[in-house]
Amino acid sequence: MTKQEQHTRTKRYGMVIDLDRCTGCGACMVACYAENNVPFKKNESDKMLSLNWIRVFKVDNGKPFPDTEICYIPKPCMQCDGRHMEGHSPCVSVCPAVATDYDYPTGIVSQIYTRCFGCRYCMAACPYHARKFNWWDPSWPAEMEKYLNPDVSVRMRGVVEKCSFCYHRYQKARDKAYLEGRDEIYEHEYQPACVEACPTGAMTFGDLLNPEHEVYKLSRSKKAFRLLEKLHTNPKVYYLSSKSWVRRKADNYLEGQSPGQQNNARKTETASH
Amino acid sequence: MSTQSDNQTVSSVKRSSGWVIFVFFLIGLIASLISGWIAFPKLLYSTRQQPIDFSHKVHMGVVSNGCQSCHYFRDDGSFAGTPTNAECESCHMYPMTSDPDENKLVEEYISENKEVPWLSYAEQPPCVFFSHAAHVKGSDMECATCHGDIGHSDSLREYQENRLTGYSRDIWGYNMLRMGEAKHGQRHKMNDCAACHLEETGSKGDCFQCHK
After folding, report:
1. Which of A20, A108, A168, A232 could form a cystine bridge with A83, CB 3.0-4.6 A?
2. pTM of the model
3. CA–CA separation, B73 and B63 (whole Å)
């Protein structure tokens, strides 16, 4: 069997975000709102109630003025593979309605809004706060309704929604491939809206199993890390940072748990990946 | 003595009341079946006619590329669906026959630059993603497998709309009991998709394959 044939069967779509390049401009968030029909409220000052599929977090190194450093972390759904890479992600395993599921051909965690009944177990299970709950029916200013994306259904009150890696774009790319008699889609044909919008080129997207895709190389870089790797959720969103304090912060250690204090234990753990 | 005769009356009353109950049960059953199978569907679905009575048969004899002459794929892989004026115009800028429906098309729509409000029998709810390319190009399926032999019909059948949901009756409303094989062209429900996928691919497919 050739390598190409293997890729036809299973893919692991993932994202690599270079935090050294991210300026925190928020273009990815804006693009996501527009692409995925994410509703907003008149008063968006309370960010706890905001719906967003990707959110830019700001972290700092906690040092006073001359040594202060800031890093922005854009955070979409991590599309976790689960501990044994078999799709047992935290949210999928708790959903009582099978409204969220692991899509094996692409490795993307799906969310079916018409199936969800809003128990929010998945939100409690998700360690990344990637899921958002619709407390209200969505509404847009009348003129804006004409600009809604017909490829993404709008969600009703009482259901959970989350980033889908713009799965509808994958389906469109597949349609084109069918028409042209191809089995494979090209790397550039399927790119999420946030990746396309990033002005500094900090975000890269593709198949993590395909050596021809850029993310294959980047995700294996020495600077690469993932959020809360110690939980073994196996996210498909990788980050790159040259700063060690950012990498340490990404694993979110509590007081007395920092990697310096348990260096040896951590080394053996990461070696097993 | 008196107690014995009392018992007899009671049992005879019991026997006759059993018949009465059965008769009333039958009447009730028949009434419910009539209301459920005949009256309720009539009430639930409103019937409309297409704005123009279109003959697929006539057109199939003229075009060169079968269904895809008018129901074509765009270059990006999306399916154009029901033709717009742009396609009809290429032949029907002026009436070609004296057919009243053709005259209606030219006078009321094409010369007025107004699109024909065709009623789509198979339009899915907005949460459904369906790829014509995957089925027609990817697996070489015939249009008739899902849509029925509409290509050889001489006139358009009536369109039935569910008054509550606003969806076409083709999506779900026929053969509610699911007894026997549903007719082609009336199988557009999720279970129908899943049944065929299970048969052809060995799996009903992942949720994301058809839902958006």
Report:
1. A232
2. 0.85
3. 16
Assess if residue B98 is contained within a domain.
no
Query: Among A104, A176, A181, whose Cβ lies nearest the Cβ of B206?
Result: A104
CA distance, residue B39 to nearest chain A CA (Å): 30
C-beta atoms of B77 and A181 within 8 A: no
How many Å apart are CA A218 and CA A21, to the nearest integer?
14
Nearest to residue B110, comparing CAs of B90, B133, B127, B132? B90
The C-alpha atoms of residue A74 and residue A54 are separated, in whole angstroms, by: 7
- For the beta carbon of residue B209, count every other beta carbon within 10 angstroms: 20
Domain of residue B152 covers 49-82+118-210
CA angle, residues A119, A121, A127, in degrees to nearest 5? 145
- The tens digit of pLDDT for each residue in A133-177 reads 999 999 999 999 899 999 999 999 999 999 999 999 999 999 999
Look at residue B27 and tell me if it is in a domain.
no
Phi-psi region of B81 (alpha: psi -120 to 50; beta: other; left: phi over 0): left
Say how many domains are in chain B: 1
The shortest C-alpha distance from A215 to chain B (Å) reads 23
The pLDDT > 90 percentage for chain A reads 74
ipTM of the prediction? 0.80
